[in-house]
Design a protein that fits this description.
This protein is an alpha/beta fold and 302 residues long. The protein folds into two domains: 175 residues, Rossmann fold (3-Layer(aba) Sandwich), CATH 3.40.50.720; 115 residues, N-(1-d-carboxylethyl)-l-norvaline Dehydrogenase, domain 2. It is built from 13 helices and ten strands. The strands form two sheets. Strands 4-3-2-5-6-7 form a six-stranded parallel beta sheet, sandwiched between helices. Strands 1-10-9-8 form a four-stranded mixed beta sheet. The termini are far apart. 45% of the residues are buried.
Length: 302
């Protein structure tokens, strides 16, 4: 399957593009497109944020997804969930209603593989290419233009959009047919859930044993236990700081997608299901917007 290192990819010729959804991910992603020289029109459900983005980056804001998509060769999107995605793509004010044949819709929402396949078919019916392209790297990756993009769709459509998406990515890979990008993101979240729970248990165990966990993490971080989570979240877990990063509410949404898909494909994900319930415990503690590393809070002795 095609894969590119985005940072060594030949920059795309400036194009007319649109970006729908200016949350913590979409706002900087759209900014990188503008910085790369593309002519960007943005849409956000809260229009004041779209106006703010246009003032900051010199692009244009639109009142509806359809208006934003008109004339764009590539329309990017990053919204909350399946329903949000359908609302900005379909209907008389949806992006597809404003897109011309031969253009492309690239969805960076973490959503279901089912909605990706549905929208791929809807787009194909009017000659528009659709690529499901969820991302990994979090808010910092979006701000630094270093996201990993996991794509599903037709190879020709992937090749057309990859040079443009390279503006905010470090790597872009086509995994297979429509829905494959979303399935890959589910694999990613399964791995993260298990890693964070293991790290939380390890730190809580070490603290209960009165170890200097900052020193412990520096030691074991040079061996086989090393991981991104340990490098980037270990110290803050020791300190009990969680007011940043990927929110527990978002992780529960993502794990819900995993559990739904596992029921369809028959995969056994017992640890993932258990960690999902642990995150529900954190929500009951008021940690809805805490970083996912807040799993450790339910293990600490009062």
């Amino acid at each position: 399957m095609p894969s590119i290192n985005a940072k060594t990819y030949q920059p795309a010729t400036p194009r007319d593009v649109a970006f729908l959804g200016l949350g913590v991910m979409g706002y900087p992603m759209a900014g990188h497109l503008a910085a790369a020289g593309h002519r960007v029109t943005v849409y956000n459900r809260t229009q004041g944020k779209a106006r703010q983005w246009a003032r900051e980056f010199g692009g244009r804001d639109a009142a509806t997804p359809r208006e934003a998509a008109q004339g764009a060769s590539v329309v990017f999107c990053c919204v909350g969930n399946d329903d949000d995605l359908r609302s900005v793509v379909l209907g008389t004010d949806g992006a597809l209603a404003g897109m011309r044949a031969g253009s492309f819709f690239v969805d960076h929402t973490t959503a279901s593989a089912e909605v990706a396949r549905q929208l791929h078919a809807e787009a194909a019916a009017q000659g528009v290419g659709f690529v499901d392209a969820p991302v990994s790297g979090g808010q910092a990756g979006a701000q630094n233009g270093m996201l990993t993009v996991m794509c599903g769709g037709d190879a020709a459509h992937f090749e057309a959009i990859a040079p443009v998406a390279a503006a905010f990515a470090q790597a872009i890979t086509l995994l297979g047919e429509s829905g494959s990008g979303q399935l890959c993101k589910m694999v990613n979240q399964i791995c993260i859930a298990g890693l964070v729970q293991g790290l939380a248990e390890a730190i809580a165990f070490g603290q209960a044993a009165s170890l200097d966990m900052d020193k412990v993490l520096k030691v074991i971080g040079k061996g086989a236990a090393q991981s991104w989570q340990m490098d980037n979240r270990g110290a803050t877990m020791v300190e009990g700081r969680f007011d940043f990063g990927f929110a527990v509410d978002w992780m529960r949404k993502d794990l819900g997608l995993v559990l739904d898909e596992s029921r369809r494909n028959g995969a056994a994900v017992p640890v993932t299901a258990l960690v999902d319930q642990f995150y529900a415990d954190v929500q009951r503690m008021g940690g809805n917007r805490w970083d996912t590393s807040a799993l450790i809070t339910r293990l600490r002795k009062s």
